[in-house]
Design brief:
Two copies of one chain form a homodimer. Chain A is of the alpha/beta class. The first copy, chain A, contains 15 helices and ten strands. At the A-B interface, helix 3, strand 2 and helix 12 of A face helix 3, strand 2 and helix 12 of B.
Chain lengths: 353, 353
């Protein structure tokens, strides 16, 4: 790949915009392997799914947790790797499906977790961008993200590829035809979501001097809130606190002061009434809100509305709603004089811990 | 109970100091019920344990997760209540033990989670301070915290009572005699841990003008780091970011600047070598560290060492190590001119969400 035009953060910017094509390529190339694994899981479903990941991949795992429990009805445990890797637990995983997610496939404790889980009788799957990686070698099955190399240290296209892999796999495992069909619209919808870039650049300009903000949503998009906060922390060095709308309404809402920056992700679906109530409350307290939604009623409560294309289904909305948030991290990082491609204190591969 | 001598935060201060007696009372009064349930679980162990909680109770649940997986070998899922309460998932919980933790027993979504889990065939247990609460009514079995009323909005004694209930229950379920015996030393150890109050008051004085800090540990005491950060946020309105030592060493360590405040909880045990490496690294970068430990070598790396009594076992150290952190939240809140008994934006009972 030729390098993008010079300038700070150009890899991140390019990779954000590559996502519609990356998802199309993933669906073209990897769907057969995902469908084959999904069919096997339909015949012999596990009693438990364990998802093991770190950082951005752990946010994708959290999305997977909501989808697997809601659609498939199988309980999910988000792994605490040190239980196996430091404390040497003899965890009973005989009827478990254990999925390790790692862009590089080289995160040592995720590799060790998969190796140990396999030795304890679990069926293991690696989800990674690197077919020759230690993670792929450790697992029974490997699903490839097929995004091409990710050059930016801040992960973007591998995150959405992980979401797509998980939603395709679970949809295949339960035979959810309409949801499977919904995936075909994703490249178009993601392209439309990227078209809000001017609005997002405007938010970045207005927010360039903030020190802190809240990022909130609930349900499927709680993962999007966590991933948005992580990207803002990594690339903008600002205190971006992710909080579930349920926890925010319970406590801290009362201390959200006039002018306090809040990002609210509110796609249509089962969670919308809860999120609309929060948007209305934040408007009354005159918080400085940016609301991301395709719902006109909820957008009316926004300080700055970011209008989104209609997602085919709430369960696929995280794939689309994270895109303007990645763009916000990029533009805010630039507006604050940083290079989003080279965050201080981050290395691309998770090393020995 | 007679009110404590007047002044801001006196309920919180009194309840922190009540903990040795509260734990002794819990062991005297509730051990037989816990042992009976533990024996039944030993005869017919579940395939999965699900822990459902919010806020401080969710931090106790995280401790429970490490203990159950490591000692009992049964996988744990920390519940996302909305999967059942909003999305209406048909979660397969037939062979699951589902434990709901709530001080008040009145948190609506935890009550609904337990009710639904029971209808789906799970064995359900309530851990609460209120035997007449909706949570106790919803569950098959109830374990009482027996702390007496908690008047301070910031929970302290109910947190340690939840830790003790979980560690007794799991120790009984696996027949871990030495660990059971270790509980008898807890009131004495907790009393000794409270004796560090002068040192903690000194830290509060030095830190009274900070805007942010990191709180870190790993393994069993990752829960202590989360609970410490929550208490500091609730009572001091400062940006206290909890982070696992693994994640800190991977990324943000490089941006910890000279003078940046970091709290490190480093009890002896399996995790100590990892935590000692972190303490040494933080010292080299001249972070402003407070290290809480009974290990002399690791305390030598501290800006301010907080020397702790020897815990009987790493698995019971969270019960002891949280005490100086509660005292720190109290004294720092006072030093900053707040009333820790009446945090802005917090209500005692988790209401409808």
């Amino acid at each position: 790949v030729a390098p993008p035009r010079a300038g700070p953060g150009q890899w991140m910017h390019r990779e954000i915009h590559e996502q519609p094509q990356a998802v199309a390529r993933l669906c073209d190339g990897e769907w057969p392997a995902i469908a084959a694994l999904g069919r096997r899981l339909r015949r012999t479903p596990p009693d438990l799914v364990v998802l093991a990941a770190r950082g951005t991949s752990d946010n994708a795992a959290l999305y997977g947790r909501y989808l697997i429990e809601t659609l498939w009805g199988i309980p999910v445990s988000l792994a605490a790797p040190s239980v196996l890797t430091v404390y040497g637990a003899r965890l009973r995983l005989r009827r478990a499906l254990v999925i390790g997610l790692s862009q590089s496939g080289a995160s040592p404790d995720i590799v060790e977790f998969i190796t140990t889980a396999r030795a304890r009788g679990a069926r293991t799957v690696a989800v990674t961008n690197h077919g020759g990686s230690p993670l792929a070698a450790a697992a029974h099955d490997t699903l490839l993200l097929r995004t091409g190399p990710e050059r930016s240290v801040a992960a973007t296209k591998t995150y959405t590829a992980q979401l797509v892999t998980l939603s395709l796999l679970v949809s295949e495992a339960v035979g959810a035809r309409r949801l499977l069909e919904g995936h075909r619209q994703l490249p178009t919808l993601m392209g439309r979501a990227l078209a809000v870039e001017d609005r997002v650049r405007d938010v970045a300009r207005r927010w360039r001097r903030i020190d802190e903000c809240l990022v909130t949503s609930r349900g499927y998009n709680y993962a999007t809130a966590l991933e948005t906060a992580l990207k803002l922390k990594e690339t903008c060095y600002l205190v971006a606190e992710p909080i579930s709308a349920a926890d925010l309404l319970h406590g801290p809402i009362a201390v959200v002061e006039r002018g306090f920056p809040v990002l609210l992700l509110a796609p249509p679906g089962r969670m919308l009434p809860h999120l609309a109530a929060l948007a209305s409350r934040l408007a009354r307290q005159r918080a400085r809100t940016v609301v991301v939604s395709s719902d006109r009623a909820v957008l009316r409560h926004a300080g700055v509305p970011v209008g989104m294309p209609d997602a085919p289904d709430e369960r696929l909305s995280p794939h689309v709603y994270v895109l303007p948030m990645q763009l916000l991290a990029y533009h805010l990082s630039r507006a604050r004089g940083h290079d989003p491609d080279r965050p201080r204190g981050l290395r691309k591969i998770t090393r020995a811990r």
